[in-house]
Amino acid sequence: MQTFTHQAGTWKWGVLCLLFLAPFFFLSYGFANHYAAGLSDVPSIVFAWEKYIPLWPWTIVPYWSIDLFYGLSLLLCWNKFELKQHVLRLFSAQLISISCFLLFPLKFSFERPELHGFFGLWFDILMGFDKPFNQAPSLHIVLLIILWDFYRRHVASAYRWVVHLWSFLIGVSVLTTWQHHFIDIPTGIWVGALCLWLFPLHTISPLHAEKVQQRTLRHFKFACYYLIVAMPLAFLALYLQGWALWLAYPASSFFLVACAYALNRPHFFQKQADGSMSIAAWILFAPYLCLAKLNSRLWTRSHTEDSLILNHNNTKIYLGRIPSHQHAKSYTGLLDCCAELPLKQQQNYQQYLSLDLIPVQPEQLHLAVQAFNQLMSQRQSSNSVLIFCALGYSRSSSVLAAWLIQTNQVDNVEAAIHIIRKARPWIVLSAKQLGYIDTYQKEYLKQQVKT
Questions:
Q1: What residues act catalytically?
Q2: Residue 338: its H or E element
Q3: Tens-digit pLDDT profile for residues 150-180
Q4: Can you tell me the distance from the alpha carbon of 398 to that of 435, in angstroms, rounded to the nearest whole number?
Q5: Is 118 exposed, middle or buried (0-12, 13-18, 19+ CB in 10 A)?
Q6: Which of 254, 316, 334, 320 is nearest to 290 (CA)?
Q7: Fewest Cβ atoms closer than 10 Å to its Cβ: which of 46, 183, 287, 377?
Q8: Secondary structure element (H or E) that encloses residue 187, with its range
Q9: Residue 350 DSSP SS3
Q10: pTM recorded for the entire structure
C-alpha cells in the first residue's frame, strides 16, 4: 500500500511507457481484427431492442477523446509506483481483451449509413484501421474504467463531476457511434474492474499470497461450495443465453470468492484501511456482497443487539455483528474482523481481516490482538468499543477471547469463553478454533514472557 507523494521526473518514465504501449496497442488490436476478418463465420450477440439505439454522429468526439486521455494519463502519474500500476493495468487490459477477441470473435451486425461533414471525416479515419470485430469485451470500455479511476483521483473534487460526465459520454458513444453491441459494455466494465483489482493502489494485490495463515482442508471445502454455486450459473448463462447471460455476473463473483478461499486470500475483497472497499472489488463482488449482507442480517435477526462483554479501564467492550454506518457512530472505537463486508469509517478504527467460517489461527490471533491493543491505547476516558465480524459469532469472539488471555484478565481459554458466552450465549466456536486459541496462549504468550 502506498501514499501518493509527488516524485519529480515521473513524466519521463511515462513517455517511455507510452512509446511501448502505443505500438503494442495498435499492433495487437490490428492483429485481432485481421484474424477475425479472415474467418468464414463470425457470430454476433445482439438484443432485439438494440435496433432502436440512435446513431449520433457527434458522439464520435467523446469516442475519439479516449485516445488523448490514454496518452496524457501516462504523463500525469504522481510517482513511479502509480505509473507502474497504471501501466500494468493498461497492459493487462490489452492482453485480456485481445485474448477474448481471438478466442471468442464477435462481429457488429448493423450497417452504418455513410456520414459526411466534420463528424463523417472522423468516422472515415476510424474505419481506416478499425473493423466491425473486436467486440466483447469492448476495449474502449475496459480502458474507460481504468482512465476514469485515474482522472477522478487527479482532478480536484470540485471538478470531479466533469470526469464523471465525460466518462459517461465516452461510455454511451460506443453504442451511439454504432461501434459496439450492448453485451460489449458490461463485459468491458467487468474486465476493466478486473485490471484495477489485479493492480491496486491502496490495498494488497490479490496476486500476493497470505503469509500468516496456513491453508487447511476447510479452505478448500468452502472453495468447493462457492464453485458449486458458480458453475451452474455459468452453465445456464451459456446454455440459455439472451438475458440469462446476466447470470455470468454472479457466476464470476462466486468464482472469485471460491478462489479467495482456495488460495486463502482475505485481501481479495480489497478492504481498505478505512473499512471501505475498492471500486474494483465492489464491481467484481457485488452479487456476493449483496447476499453476504443479507445473510448477516437474516442469521442475526434474533440477535440484533450488541453484547456488553466487560468494562475495562472505563472502556465498555462490546461484541456484535457488522454495524450499519449510522450505528457505528455510537462507538468511539471499532475493531473489524470481517474481510467480506465494507464499513467505511473516519473514526478510531482498526482491522484484522479474515475469511468467514474459517477458524482464526494462532498467528492471526496474535496480530488481531495487537490491532485491538492499538485501538484500546488510543481511547479516551469513558469510551465504548465494538469488536465485530459479519455475525458476531465466531471470528470476533475468538479475537476477544485471545485478548482477554493476553491482558491477563483470565488464566485459560475456558475462562475467556465463559465471560463472552455469559454475555453473548449464541457465539459459535468450534473445537478447532478453541484449539487455536489454546495454542496462541501457549506459544505467543510464552514469547511475550521471554521478552
A1: 389
A2: strand 333-338
A3: 999 999 999 999 999 999 999 999 999 999 9
A4: 11
A5: exposed
A6: 254
A7: 377
A8: helix 184-198
A9: strand
A10: 0.92
